Amino acid sequence: MPGQVSAVSRSETYSFSKPNREAVTLLAGLGVEGDVHAGETIRHQFRMTYEPDLPNLRQVHLMHEELFAELALKGFEVSAGQLGENITTRGVDLLGLPAGALLRIGEQAVVEVTGLRNPCSKINDFRKGLLGEVFAVDPASGEFTFKSGVMAVVRRGGAVRPGDAVRVEHPPGPHRPLERV
Hints:
It comes from Streptomyces daqingensis. Residues 18-169 form the MOSC domain. There is one protein chain. By secondary structure, the chain is mostly beta strands. The chain has helices at 66-73, 122-126, 131-134; strands spanning 3-9, 20-21, 24-27, 31-32, 60-64, 87-90, 102-105, 109-116, 135-137, 144-146, 150-156, 158-160, 165-169. The chain has one domain (3-169): PK beta-barrel domain-like (M1 Pyruvate Kinase, Domain 3), CATH 2.40.33. It has three helices and 13 strands. The longest helix has 8 residues, at 66-73. It is globular.
């Protein structure tokens, strides 16, 4: 059974949260039309200062709605768009995808997963203590856990709306695990 889009969000300005919309349009090679992070080269506000000409591997931010339920159990009320994601999904194991996985969203859009979102300290400005719940270090192994979604580039554009199906297509093996981008 395919996953589903539960919300779509975009913001024309740099802000931590992004307002929900009835639909967004993905543009091949750029990102979400009208979103501040759309572009061929890096649009992340901090990284633009020292890597302005690198390819934008963070054109679209996707987050799994299941994280919100997990955070609610720990006392954090978070909803779609509030952590800056463009597409909120349900029923897709985003964090378990390999690098290069394709997500076919709705009728036309296709995004390629490039890596994990690297959560920043602004998350604690939004909700004090939240960073510790979306980013953790396993004391035994020293492995980092990033739970704040994945980043992708747009391979084929199209409209995306809540209720659209999300179908996963894995790349040929061997698979590379996601790293932060």
